[in-house]
Amino acid sequence: MHGATGLRAWVVQRLSAIYMAVFILLMLGVFIFSPPADYTAWRGLMSHTLVSVAVLLFYLSVLIHAWVGVRDILIDYVQWQVVRLLLLALFGLMFVASGLWLLEVMLLARINGI
Amino acid sequence: MPLRKKPVFLNLLQIRLPIAGIMSIIHRASGMLMVLLIPLSVYLLDLSLADEQGFAAVGSLLQSSLVGFTLFLLLWALLHHLYSGIRYLLIDVEIGVERPVYRYTAWAVTLLAPLSALLLWGVL
What we know:
A: 114 residues
């Protein structure tokens, strides 16, 4: 059933994993060694061009990675096709909505931060 | 050819899952937990960037003792998912595929995740 997309999903899952791992380590570094002291610093950090793009890429990775993972879990545990499809649609909707919301938040931070 | 019915044995009290199996289930459970919290993470980011009050609200929320333990569980989920993910990547490039190493790394992931989560929880 997934013969055509299996390899692509496998590659995508690993590439997104590597990006997220690097991003999380960098962010942990920032929060341990120089945590943003106040609101201005926090907004300054999040509206910086590089950070902004890195965060957008991070959430893109999260959503794609989550989609592949959730799909695998649903295929294994939900045998009833209709329920599986419904759950996939619900998760898909939740992922797209979260992604658009994040895009809005980051764009607003950019506009207000400059 | 008629399909043969697979033998199914699901007595949870008698199944003795190997450590790599336990680690794998936690990998899935932690992933699902984090997936369900994606909208919450966007909400908190939104709130923290909106204005001074929102930033302060998120700050005090994360510091409160009520959220504290939940935060530890979340860190545990994240680190377990991260470590077992790195283990899977290493297995992809044929590191740690053989039996004894395979089991040691599964133990290491499962034990190091909560320990380092505790450590990080103290630092942050």
